[in-house]
Amino acid sequence: MKSLKMILALVLVLAMTGTTFAAFSISGNLPGDGTDLGNGLTSYTISTKGVNVYEDLVIGGVHQLTYDGMFGPVPTPSMTSLPGGAFPVPAHWVTNDTHFLFLDGDVSPTAGGIVETNTQSGSPLTDVVPEHWGMGTLGGAGNTFGFLGGDETVFRNLIQVVIPTGTGQLLTGVTFDAAGSQYALEALVGVPEPSTILMLLVGSLCLLAVRSRK
User: Fold this and answer.
1) Residue 210 falls within a domain, yes or no?
2) Is residue 171 exposed (0-12), middle (13-18) or buried (19+ Cβ within 10 Å)?
3) Using CA atoms, how far apart are residues 161 and 138, in angstroms rounded to an integer?
4) Is 89 domain-assigned?
5) Strands 116-118, 131-139: pairing kind
C-alpha cells in the first residue's frame, strides 16, 4: 500500500511536469540552464517554440556593452565584425553582452529597431576604454521582429541574457504564431518558474503525506 501511494505521488509530479499550458513554449531560462562565465556573470540562451513574431520584448537588469565611436550601445548580435567590417569583434564582447540572436535562426527586425541602454556601472568586469560595461535594459515598446520562415515546431534561439550570477530577471513581451494567435511572454530568467515551484511543492506534500501514514 505504501509503495502504491509513493507511485501515485510520483505520477502526479510527472504529470504536472509534462503539462502544456499554451501552444507557445520557452526554454533555457531556468537556473540549471545557465552557463557560469567565471567572472561573476551567468549567461542564458533563451529559445522559443510555436511562435515566429515578437513585439515589445524587454528585459532589465542585464549586463551590457557600450563601445566608444559607435552610435549608442552595441548589441553584438552574434556578428563576427563591426558594421562595415571595421575590425573583428572580440569573443568576450559577444560572451558577456546581452543581445538578441539575430543571426541565429534568421531573425529579422521589422519595425522600431532594437532599444538598448547601459548605465556603464554595476559590472563585475573592469571598464577599459573604448569598451564600457554596465547593467542596463534590452528591448522595449515598439520593438517588432520575427523569424523569416522556418519550422515553428522546433525550439529556435531568440536572445542571450547575461546577468550577475545568483540573480534573476523577467523577460516580457507579446508573441504571435503563423495563424496570428497572440501569446503573452513572461519568463523568469535565472529563477524557477512559478509552475515549477508549485510542482515541487505539491510533490513534496504528497511524499510527506505518505510518510505521515507509516
Assistant:
1) no
2) buried
3) 9
4) yes
5) antiparallel
Domain extent at residue 181: 23-190
Residue 25 to residues 17, 21, 47, 128, 163, Cα–Cα distance (Å): 13, 9, 8, 39, 22
pLDDT higher than 60, residue 112: no
For residue 2, is it within any domain?
Answer: no
> Which tens digits make up the pLDDT trace of 28-86?
898 889 999 999 999 999 999 998 888 899 999 999 988 775 545 555 454 444 444 55
Per-residue pLDDT tens for 141-175? 887 877 766 678 888 888 899 999 999 999 999 99
Rounded distance between C-alpha atoms, residue 75 and residue 89, angstroms: 11
